[in-house]
Amino acid sequence: MTNPVMSATPQTTATPGFISQILNTLLNPAAAMAAVPQQSGRQFWLLAIQLLLTTAIIYWFYAGMSPAWLVDQQLLHAGELTPAETEQIRAAMASMAGATPIIGAVSIAVGSLAFTAITAGYLLLTGKLQKALNYGQWFALVVWSQLPALLNILGLALLVVLADSPDQPLMLVNYASLNQLVLDLPIGHALYNWAESINVFLVWQLWILFAALQSAAGFTAKRAAIVTGTPVLLIFGLWALFA
Fold first, then answer.
1. Which UniProt keywords apply (predicted)?
2. 34-46 b/e with 16+ CB inside 10 Å = b?
3. What is the pLDDT confidence band of residue 95, given thresholds at 50, 70 and 90?
């Protein structure tokens, strides 16, 4: 009597649902990002959600403010001005106060899209030697790595909802910044804008991208750290040096 021959059955890995992939990317990026280059189209849905929510929430944030408050806040961040300059700029800002929500929302959306495209191009260049991924795959990785920015904007929406008044400081947008959480530098300080630009969600994004470079592109940990960290260190290092 012969023993039955056990035939090997190919195993397939089920593609996680969209929500599951979002959660996995935030909590376990090394595993979640490994499959991104083989996926088709999900990054565009995620990008659309990010852009729509960001545009809508930034518009809502500015639109709720009274024109007088909005102008005062903008002048607060304008730096040192003479009385004549203050009145001149106040008049110009007041005339544009109604358009500020649209300008702010569109600027954020366009800037975000441009940043995504440029970052994907940078990663394409760094991966040229080993021909790791094509531009579209890098673009997808960058989109997924920016998930913390979506949480950032949702957090802003929650703060606006919980506020007693729609007239809130413009710096509320950077509620998770190094400045607001730790340094508390005043407006006008040489490093104020620098410290406002570094935030918890940026660090989270870099961590996801660092993991993605290893699991999806085959980079070593050292190379992934260099590729991820070099632009950030250059930008913020030179900014702090010449502030």
1. Membrane, Transmembrane, Transmembrane helix
2. ebbbeeeebbeeb
3. confident
